[in-house]
Structures are given as C-alpha cells and as structure tokens.
Specification:
By secondary structure, the chain is α/β, with parallel strands linked by helices. Helix content is 30%, strand content 22%. It has a single domain, classed as Spore Coat Polysaccharide Biosynthesis Protein SpsA, Chain A, CATH 3.90.550. The longest helix is centred in the C-terminal third of the chain and has 27 residues.
Length: 260
C-alpha cells in the first residue's frame, strides 16, 4: 500500500500515535504534537492517570491507573497498551523520543509487527543482554517505535508470564527487551516478525552505532550523538518549573516585606 501525501502531510490512517506516561505529561504532549507536524495519523491517544487541562483537541485522553514507577510503565506497555488502540498499528512516542523526519517514512516500516531503533552489540563477555532464549543476539528493539495491534494484544491474550532479567543483584524489567528478546520465539511461532537491522536503521536512532552513521532517521530516542539536534521539551519543562518556583518565592517574600 502506497500512503498518500495530502496537503503536504503523510497519511497514516492505520496507525495511532500513542504515548503512555504519568510524568512529564506536558512535555509528552508537545512530543506528540511535534510528531504530527507532517503526518495525519488515524488516531492520537495519550494514556495517563488524569486528563490534562488544555489537552489539544486532536489528542484523545485514555485512562490508566497512575504509573508510579518505571516497572509500572514496563508492565502496562506489555499487557495494557493494546486495550487503548483501535487501529492496526501504533506509533509509540515519549517526551524524549518522537518523530522528527516524517519525510523519511518508508512503506516497509509497516511490513513488520515491531520496529524500533537498532541496539548495539552486547559488551564482550555479556551473554545475557540483547539475546533471545537460545542466546542469539537481537539487534532491534527500543520502546519508541511501531507495533501491530496483534502484537500488542498477544501477551495478555496468550497469558504470557511476566519475567525479568537478573543482573547486578536485582531483577530488571524492560518491556522492549521482553518483547523483542524474551518472547520473540512465541511471537514468531504466531507468524509475527520484528524488523531486521537493515530496515530499522532507517526508522529510528538511539545508540550511535556504526550502522546508523550518515542516515537521517524517521524518529529518535534520547539525545545522544547526532540526536542532540532534535527538540528537548523536557528542558523547557524544567525551565518553566524553575521559573514558577522563583515567582512563588518572590511573591512570598514580597508579601512578607509588605506586612512589615
């Protein structure tokens, strides 16, 4: 299927732009709006615990219980995300990762059930990181990416148990690693596919690995290397919060001085 360009905007009617968060909500909304500059998505959904005041009309609010920590986020991204999506695919973004070059869209991005930024090779001697159940290295994951509806629904429908990875004295739970490594064999047994490095390197960048050098990506995650040129709405948020605190302190001091 060839996606149309109408009034200068890429038409992706089968893709929902989505973000799930209970922190940096305003910054996440800005990231969603930035992602929609050159794209008309089929839907846009913000999943959070309380509807933000002034939520743009083109972004829908979808409720979830408050995500109190990163483990809550990881679990819900695996077992709840699909409940909020009605289209065939979802493009997941965060405050620190979103669409930056809509003109770099490729039709092959929707040939897979999961596509995200490429992962680096594991460090020498590391026999656990970025590996499937048979020890094979997985080169593509990352939570900023596109997932099919059937992939998002699968863990809950199939009652797949939630398991982490033990390292450095504790259990670690990473939703992208769980999907792209831990249960990869289960997904593939159902006919689902994860994009190869050769395609993912054009989709998104997080780690500045050799394979992505010289490529302009469709999206990004975190501001390392060449990603540092992309907007950082979290910095704006910190500045605004600091400004608010300064104004509050100034107001209190003014009130105290005028009482004397």
């Amino acid at each position: 299927m060839k996606h149309e360009i109408i009034n200068g905007k890429l038409q992706l009617p089968e893709v929902t732009l989505v973000a799930m968060t209970s922190v940096n909500v305003r910054e996440t909304i800005k990231a969603m709006e930035y992602s929609m500059r050159g794209i008309d998505f089929g839907d846009a959904v913000l999943i959070t615990h309380k509807k933000p005041i002034g939520l743009p009309g083109n972004i829908k609010y979808s409720h979830t219980d408050e995500l109190k920590n990163i483990d809550d986020f990881n679990y819900k991204m695996v077992y709840e995300l699909g409940d909020h999506i009605k289209t065939d695919y979802a493009m997941i973004v965060h405050a620190d990762g979103f669409v930056v070059h809509p003109e770099m869209w490729r039709e092959e991005f929707l040939d897979y059930d999961y596509i995200g930024s490429p992962w680096p090779l594991p460090n020498e001697g590391d026999s656990t990181t970025y590996r499937d159940k048979d020890g094979n290295i997985c080169r593509v994951g990352n939570s900023v990416g596109i997932r099919s509806k059937r992939l998002m629904d699968f863990p809950k429908k199939a009652n797949v148990p939630w398991v982490g990875e033990y390292a450095f004295g504790k259990m670690w739970y990473h939703e992208d690693g769980f999907i792209c490594c831990k249960i990869r064999h289960l997904l593939e047994a159902e006919g689902m596919t994860i994009a190869p490095l050769e395609v993912a390197k054009y989709f998104g960048h997080e780690h500045m690995i050799p394979e992505v050098q010289g490529i302009t990506p469709f999206c990004f995650h975190k501001w390392a290397g060449t990603n540092s040129e992309y907007p950082d709405f979290t910095k704006e948020g910190i500045y605004n919060k600091l400004n608010h605190k300064i104004r509050t302190i100034h107001g209190k001091l003014y009130a105290i001085m005028h009482k004397q």
